[in-house]
Amino acid sequence: MDAVAMINSGRAVPESIGILPSPGVRRAVPGTTSQVQSFSDLVAAAYSGLANETPAEPLAQAYVTVLARAAGMQTGQAFNLLYLDELLGRSLTTQAIIAAIGAFRLNPES
Known about the structure:
- The protein is built from 5 helices and no strands.
- The chain is mainly α.
């Protein structure tokens, strides 16, 4: 579900993965009872009982550093959703997205 939600999310870069709602996407996980519109909504729903403060997370920051280097971007904060959405959209190649869509046997909603 998480991977499908990421494929159906992202607004920073057209036709890419991400975490924020994509224009025109009503449900990030079609074919389920989930009404979330993006990957970030899916995560927020899973952790709704937690405080809205993010502790320091060295591993997440290390991943962001590697992705930023691959995307040719400056390293930013791992939990800045706008930054993370653009970073993910720019770091994954079109071929990788097509391979993921094929692996999950996803079809566009009609």
